[in-house]
Design brief:
Length: 162
């Protein structure tokens, strides 16, 4: 061992002093530098792991919300189509009701006009009969030399009107 010490020019006292100095410096650095750094790195590692887990969970939630969004949109489209179909059916029913009501009103108006025409026809026929009766009375009066009495005229008119 002396040969190693002499070859490398090592002094045993100096070597022991350096080992003690190294141990003291290492102890101080460990307690005041390495330990807080290791603690901080552990906390950061936990935060990073938590961040990654949160990101993964957020990604899962995003995917789920996109799936839900697609389902909601699909359901909304289905409901919209159902509402449109229902509105179309109601419009068709309303159209049929309006057409039926219009036909009824036209039928009523036609019947009223027919009745009015029949009344007008009856009035015109009555007027014509009255005029014809007057003409007959006048012509009979001219043909007959004697004048007819008003009672005779009435009887002739009644017989002609029938």
């Amino acid at each position: 061992m002396d040969t190693i010490i002499s070859t490398f020019h090592l002094d045993l006292k100096l070597f022991i002093a350096q080992v003690v100095n190294f141990a003291v410096v290492f102890g101080v650095l460990y307690w005041f530098a390495f330990k807080p750094i290791i603690k901080t790195m552990g906390e950061r590692t936990k935060k990073i792991e938590q961040g990654l887990a949160d990101a993964k969970e957020a990604t899962t939630r995003l995917e789920n919300s996109q799936i839900e969004e697609a389902d909601i949109i699909k359901q909304a489209r289905t409901e919209a189509i159902a509402i449109i179909d229902k509105a179309s059916q109601q419009a068709e029913i309303k159209k049929d009701e309006i057409i039926a009501k219009a036909r009824e009103e036209v039928s009523i108006i036609i019947n009223q006009e027919k009745q009015k025409m029949q009344q007008d026809k009856a009035e015109v026929l009555a007027d014509i009969r009255k005029e014809v009766a007057d003409l007959v009375i006048k012509s009979v009066a001219k043909i007959l030399p004697n004048k007819l009495s008003s009672d005779d005229e009435k009887e002739i008119v009644k017989s002609l009107v029938k």
